Structure formats: C-alpha cells, structure tokens
Amino acid sequence: MPLSKDEVRHVAMLARLGLEPGDEDFYADQLSGILEHIDRLQQVDTDDIPPTAQVVEIASRLRDDEPRPSLTQEEALANAPASVDGFFRVPAIQEET
C-alpha cells in the first residue's frame, strides 16, 4: 500500500515535522515499507497465544516480611538533634501562619 505525497505531507503535519521539497518521495517509500511490515505482522495467527502483560517473568527479590526485634522509641530518638512528644523534630520547610 504505497502512500501518496499528500498522505506523507499530512503525516508530517500531524507529527509537526518540516519537510524539504522533494522529501515526500523518500518518506513515502519509507513509510510504505513500514506499513507493509505491519500488514505482514497482522497476518500472524495469535489465537493460541495467551495475552501477556510481561514478557519476562518477574520474581520478587525481597525477603518475606517477618516481625523481629527492633529499636525502642527511646533508642531510635537517642541521637536525634531534636524530638517532640516521642517524634523526630525537623525544621519547617514552610512559614508558619
């Protein structure tokens, strides 16, 4: 299905590409070749192929989340420059109103 010069100009306008005079023939050949490949791919029988969201299987590399002993609140705040009511105190990033 060869493209016409008008179709090439239209595609170029949609893509916001500037064409030099005489470029229409070159791009018509290029785009026609691409469309031929797409037509060939559409002829492939894919009825027996299940839909996939991921081509390569993804396995979680994270360990299982298991509870275990951790710092107490006092231990976590021991080296904090400032704390208020058991929480870290950080400088304000917006002006207080």
Question: How would you describe the overall organization of this protein?
Answer:
With 97 residues, this protein is mainly α. The protein has a domain of 38 residues. Helix content is 36%, strand content 4%. It has a two-stranded antiparallel sheet. It is elongated and about 75 Å long. The mean pLDDT is 89.
**Structural shape:** elongated
What proportion of the residues is helical, as a percent range? Answer: 25-40%
Radius of gyration: 31 Å
Helix-strand pattern: HHHEE
End-to-end separation: 67 Å
Quick description:
This protein is 36% helix and 4% strand.
List keywords for this structure.
single chain, 97 residues, mainly alpha, two-stranded antiparallel sheet, 3 helices, 36% helix, 4% strand, elongated
What's the helix and strand layout?
Layout: H1 5-14, H2 23-42, H3 73-77, E1 83-84, E2 87-88
Antiparallel strand pairs: 1-2
Helix pairs in contact: 1-2
